[in-house]
Amino acid sequence: MSSSQKIAVVTGASSGIGAVYADRLARRGYDLLLVARRGERLQNLATKLEQAYGIKAETLVADLEKENDLARLETVLAGNPAIRVLVNNAGIARLSSVAETPVQESLAQIALNITALTRLTHAVLPAFKERNEGAIINIASVLAVHALPVSSVYSGTKAFVLNFSRGLQQELASTDVRVQVVLPAATATDLWDISGVPLAALPQETVMSAEHLVDAALAGFDQGEPVTWPSMADTGLWERYDTARSALFAATQTGQPAPRLLAL
Ligand SMILES: NC(=O)c1ccc[n+]([C@@H]2O[C@H](COP(=O)([O-])OP(=O)(O)OC[C@H]3O[C@@H](n4cnc5c(N)ncnc54)[C@H](OP(=O)(O)O)[C@@H]3O)[C@@H](O)[C@H]2O)c1
Question: What letter does residue 4 receive in the DSSP assignment?
Answer without folding.
Answer: S
